[in-house]
Amino acid sequence: MKNKKLAIVAVGGNSLVKDEKRKSSRHQYIVVKETAHHIADMIEAGWDMAIGHGNGPQLGFALRRSEVAFRADGVPAVPMDICIALNQAEVGYALQQNLQNELFARGINKQVATILAQMLVDEDDHAYRLPPTKPVGSFMKEDEAKHLAGQWGWNVTEDAGRGWRRVVPSPFPKKILEIETIRTLINAGVVTITAGGGGIPVIDEGDGQHRGIPGAVDKDYAASLLAQELKADLFVVSTAVEKVAINFGRQNQRWFDKMTLSQAKKYLAEGVHFARGSMAPKVHAIVWYLENGGKEAVITNPENIGNALNRKTGTWFVHDGAQKFVVTAKIGAARPKTKTTITKKEAVPAKAEK
Is 354 an active-site residue? Predict the structure, then answer.
């Protein structure tokens, strides 16, 4: 790896669901095939790579399947941490197989592996004391979302003008427990898919023992931590838009080819430019990466990754000598226009406890 550069690529979970009519596992697999093609372009260009991915829709689907099965037939409910582990295997399998197939077709002899990753979080994280913020599952109309909130005990909110979704606690990542295994694979030249869905949130019980807890770590923060730990040369955030804009959707909307660290922190602090649960965590994750030794980062959509690497598109985030100041995730998020519908407590079936 000494003569190669390392990139960390964060793939959005929402990007795997094209629309409400195409959200089955098979449909998602087909979408992943296209994403794998663009990632393979980077590998063919000489990059070593670790890939993280989101699981917002996939986690919502898994939780709802579990709840429906429990109430309909008494099937033991699946705790959230195990649902995230299932998501890591589900999406990891699709990425791994499609990428292996694409590399083989190009005559590139490179191994691909998926590693389940546990993410250490703080049991006292503010995410467990404040209303939940992490959107999961499908986009819904307001009346449907509020109906399901009442029926299942969910918390729901309007998500960046795209519809209503369920929200769950999202603690901040502290440590990837499998980081040395991941480092070994990367050093051996293995394309490593890991920290999917932000990693499985676990706490340290103080005696060397870890235990999974409910919550969904943001995949962009997890990928940023991965990039920091591995001292990556480039952090790529793949999302639904080609570039980043401020004043999005307004007459004074402005797209960026390049955004300095100072600008990114300024726009985050203003709290009106980047939607919570959407662009805000992506920009904040990049700020965190740059503030902790990262070199440069880019946000673009999957089909433009190649063009972005050639500096033809995407929004590039670069250093400008700014003083170190990390905007917190809570401050650096545009406030949703519609208030979250909060239930007193999410209903947890008795059999859900491990």
Answer: no
